Every structure is written in structure tokens, then in C-alpha cells.
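Request:
You are asked to prepare a plain-text protein record giving the amino acid sequence and the C-alpha cells, at your earliest convenience.
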Amino acid sequence: MNRARPALLLVLGWLALGALPADAAVYKWVDAEGRTHYSSTPPPGADAKPVVIREDPLPPPAAGSPPAAPPAAGGGNA
């Protein structure tokens, strides 16, 4: 029974992480030097605008195009 406890805690931890909010706000602003920044909190006094993150899935592949090849295995099996 003691062996199962770490595995159970690990599974419960992963389940708890899955319950975190996935739609956290992201802000965009440009600093005085013209650099663009992105952050989860807007800086004080800056004109930060919330960024809308698309949740649309990728479009389906075009008809007639071949499927993408899987990445080559980097193993040294010769």
C-alpha cells in the first residue's frame, strides 16, 4: 500500500494542474524605446491592450495534399 501512495499523489497532482484556468489574460504594450512586450499583468502607467488569443483549431489540410511525414528518428540504428 505504501508503494501506491507516491503514484496516487502524482496522478492527483497532474489532475489538479489540469483544473487551472487556461484563459489567462495577456497584455501587449510598447515601451519608450519602441520595444513590444507581452505579459500576464499590465505595467503601471503604460497603455497596455489585452491580446485576444485565437482558440480556433488549425484548418484542415487542403484536398489532394499528401499527409505530413513524421519526423526522422535520430537513433543510431545502422
